[in-house]
Amino acid sequence: MYHEIIKGKTVMFTTTLTPTEKPFTSVNWNVNFSTPIIFVTNSENTIGPEYEGRITFFPSTASLELRSLTLNDTGEYFVNIVQDGTFLNGRTTLVIYGEQMSKSNNLIAFVLFKQVYVKLTCKKIVCNYYSEVTTSDRVQLTDGGSSLTIITVTRSDQGPFRCSVSNPVSIGTSDPVNLSISYGPENINLILSPPQGYFAVGSDISLTCSVGSRLPAQFKWFLNGDQLPDTGSELRLMNVQMSQSGNYSCQAFNSKTLRSQTSQPSAITVLGKCNLLVLAKMEIKGFLHTVLMFVK
């Protein structure tokens, strides 16, 4: 017999012997003929050091439960029973695989002198409200559909994913698993409000930095290349003065992707209140010029 189980789970080796109150003369469980699991004789149990705290022996049927399976538990399992001068024995193969998206219980019927085959397989992997995953150049299903590999992950691959597992008598579905896919920052855009380049002294100005990013981006602000103390996606300039004129830009940073992106500068010019006078039109070197004067 051949059985496949996920590591961390529990396997039950169940014999077909009729339960009895009379103790067996001896019961010997071992793996690969060399590693003792438990030896029972005269109602005394000798347990192998690797199995302390991980097994339960059922004396009425000589069945055995093995818990907290590890990859090292893969192997050939043997049981030898002596009962009233009769020798009974059985064997099976157990293969332990790594973690999978499954919450189904694993129960193996270990039968003496009778072949029973129970295999849990990942029947299909589904995602996004149970639409079945289909293979492509990026998506691969291997190991009979039990392993899903996505190459060159995109933000649309976040899931949720579920694994449907079945055996001949039941079907179980795992809890949903979502992929946390980080990207950006990208497509940064600096928006000036009001949308004009010239402002009078005392105006209120708002600059907003928008960007595509997951995790949410962290922001820095710059004036003429010098970093400002302000943070956040919005910079508010209240009651602006002429000294605040210059080129403003924002920079977005993603702490997960370790990428940053800086916006194109937005020029802001703050002017004092003034009256515009046309003083004269004059001809200079054959060209007609208009001379303007700003008077506060």
From TrEMBL:
Gene3D superfamilies: Immunoglobulins (2.60.40.10)
Keywords: Disulfide bond, Glycoprotein, Immunoglobulin domain, Signal
SUPFAM superfamilies: Immunoglobulin
InterPro entries for this protein: Ig-like_dom (IPR007110), Ig-like_dom_sf (IPR036179), Ig-like_fold (IPR013783), Ig_sub (IPR003599), Ig_sub2 (IPR003598), IgSF_CEA-related (IPR052598)
Domain Ig-like stretches: 185-269
PROSITE patterns: IG_LIKE
SMART domains listed in its UniProt record: IG, IGc2
Pfam families the record matches: Ig_3
PANTHER family: CARCINOEMBRYONIC ANTIGEN-RELATED CELL ADHESION MOLECULE 5-RELATED, CARCINOEMBRYONIC ANTIGEN-RELATED CELL ADHESION MOLECULE 8
UniProt-recorded name of the protein: Ig-like domain-containing protein
Source species of the chain: Oreochromis niloticus (Nile tilapia)
Species classification: Eukaryota, Metazoa, Chordata, Craniata, Vertebrata
